[in-house]
Design goal:
heterodimer; A: 158 residues; alpha/beta; Beta Polymerase, domain 2; 5-stranded mixed beta sheet; two-stranded parallel sheet; 24% helix; 30% strand; B: 374 residues; alpha+beta; Cytochrome-c3 Hydrogenase, chain B; 3-stranded antiparallel beta sheet; 48% helix; 13% strand
């Protein structure tokens, strides 16, 4: 299965949800997805297009556009194509459906995106901080307007 | 994990300091008698915030930082990082540099497997094995040291090339070290194969099937031990791996024994790759000519764009997602480490096993907490 047929198939199945699809190379494709339907799209990718391997899921903060992008990088064990799928959320109240029912290993990625960016995942089995202490919840350190760095580094705490 | 316990159950905390891991993490296991009913992994003791630090460093400074993600795989971390910058800036790496990179990355794979395997044997009370592998690893470390000038955190790769050329007589050193190492690897295999206690603790323990392993997102030796030939060097060749002859080592059992066997086989393949490289390596410049890229590249702006580049780490698939906004620092770097999903699989894998097997199963994943926390 090559990159072209994957895009065609994806757009044919979800004409309203997938937009701005680009083909960067033979093995890299990108697309934007509507946040409401991300779980259905992921399920289709996994079951019909053999995208069975979630490489990672993370956030990128864009304060100028007042948006947070949640990016899913999905690969496959059968073909070499890697899909980069973006869901764009408002910065004030980012909420998106969790993809843990489809990709089991998204669990920790979503917990990390939650604690670092404040993206709230709906229906996540256990949404709590992974690498940060509980007291830091609400500071969202990887957002661009976080003022704690470098004031909260060990050197300044002593 | 549900924290409520019945009268016959109790929760045991393993860690954060526990000899079974190089690095702190905590495993909360709910036990009924000797059997694990449920478990949970807690992370975060050595969270360094490397993704945030990288946003505040120039591209050249970042190379030093990514070394620190995991000291056992410093070379492949650098490869993933500089690979991203090269793709963004469209830099063509000269062939000689590509060969040197392959040699160094495979050497680093060998030393990582040697440590992982030896350490694993010591978890099972097989401490002399650890001494053997550490002894042989020292020779490989000296080889790496002779090229990079550092033992663990090398800062050796640059976008566009490598810092230094191979020293004189490197080929002979490699030949000598590999002569010994080949014998040693055969010896380890023999030891593992014939030791009854070792076999009792590894054969049929912690079995992952191919479908489950794929579902859990595992990569690297734990996945290849289940029979899935998933290797980024073959599936998505970078550098000169396309021109080299090597095979993807797989086993079919998916148990702890198979994972160690895959690592043994991979060391042989790595030695084979390095020997081919030393025979085929062309002469030429280390950096593309008539470009500003060099050992000390000046601070420069990298074209805006987004790129995902992945390489085969000693432990699996290492990927960097880099967003550039056209300035001299990356806008966002996401590090996708191989151990992150592997460590996540411990709770389902540990369900129903006895306490004594925790160390055996968790150790066989060759995890590196530093990389999970970043």
């Amino acid at each position: 299965m090559d990159a072209n047929s994957i895009i065609t198939s994806l757009k044919g199945k979800f004409p309203d949800d997938i937009c701005d699809d680009i083909m960067e190379s033979d093995i890299r494709i990108g697309a934007k997805v509507k946040p409401e339907n991300v779980v259905e799209v992921c399920r289709y990718l996994k079951e019909d297009l053999s995208f069975g391997h979630l490489c990672c899921e993370f956030g990128v903060d864009y304060p100028d556009r007042n948006e947070i992008e949640v990016i899913y990088v999905i690969g496959s064990y059968e073909h070499p194509v890697v899909l980069t799928m973006k869901a764009i959320l408002p910065r004030d109240n980012p909420e998106i459906e969790s993809v843990v029912p489809v990709y089991w290993n998204a669990n920790w990625y979503e917990r990390e995106t939650y604690e670092l960016f404040g993206v709230k995942y709906l229906n996540h089995p256990d949404l709590k901080p992974l690498v940060l202490p509980k007291e830091m919840l609400g500071e969202w350190p990887l957002r661009k307007d976080y003022k704690g760095f470098p004031n909260k580094t060990a050197r300044n705490l002593v | 994990m549900d924290e409520t316990v019945e009268p016959s159950e109790m929760i045991v905390h393993l860690g954060p300091q526990h000899p079974m891991m190089p690095g702190p993490f905590r495993l909360n296991a709910k036990l009924r008698g000797e059997t694990i009913v449920d478990s949970e992994v807690e992370m975060g003791w050595i969270h360094k915030g490397i993704e945030k630090i990288l946003e505040n460093k120039t591209y050249l400074q970042g190379i030093t930082i990514v070394d620190r993600i995991c000291y056992l795989a410093a070379m492949t971390n650098e490869e993933a990082y500089v690979g991203c910058v090269e793709k963004l800036a469209g830099i063509e790496v000269p062939e000689r540099s590509q060969y040197i990179r392959v040699i160094m990355e495979e050497l680093s794979r060998i030393q990582s497997h040697l440590l992982g395997m030896g350490e694993y044997a010591s978890f099972l009370g097989f401490v002399s094995m650890f001494m053997y592998t550490i002894r042989d690893r020292e020779d490989v470390m000296s080889l790496i040291d002779s090229v990079t000038g550092a033992r663990v955190t090398h800062s050796f790769l640059r976008y566009g090339g490598v810092k230094d050329d191979l020293p004189d007589g490197f080929k002979d050193d490699v030949k000598y070290v590999f002569g010994n190492l080949r014998k040693a690897v055969d010896q380890y295999e023999e030891l593992y194969r014939t030791d009854d206690i070792y076999r009792a603790r590894t054969v049929g323990i912690g079995v992952l099937t191919a479908d489950v392993a794929k579902d859990l997102g595992v990569s690297g030796p734990p996945l290849r031990a289940t029979g899935v030939a998933f290797d980024i060097r073959k599936d998505e060749p970078y550098l000169v791996y396309d021109d080299l002859d090597f095979k993807v080592c797989t086993q079919t059992d998916g148990d702890v024994y198979a994972r160690i066997q895959v690592r043994l086989d991979e060391m042989r393949e790595s030695m084979h790759i390095i020997e081919q490289c030393l025979d085929q390596i062309p002469s030429g410049p280390l950096f593309p000519e008539d470009t500003p890229y060099g050992k000390r590249s000046p601070v420069m702006r990298i074209p805006a764009g987004e790129v995902f580049h992945r390489v085969e780490d000693p432990r699996g698939e290492m990927g960097f997602y880099m967003v550039s906004d056209g300035s001299d620092k990356p806008y966002r770097v996401k590090i996708r480490g191989p151990v992150y999903p592997t460590l996540q699989t411990l709770p389902p894998l540990l369900k129903g096993v006895t306490v004594a097997d925790i160390v055996s199963i968790a150790g066989s994943m060759d995890t590196c907490t530093s990389e999970v926390d970043r």
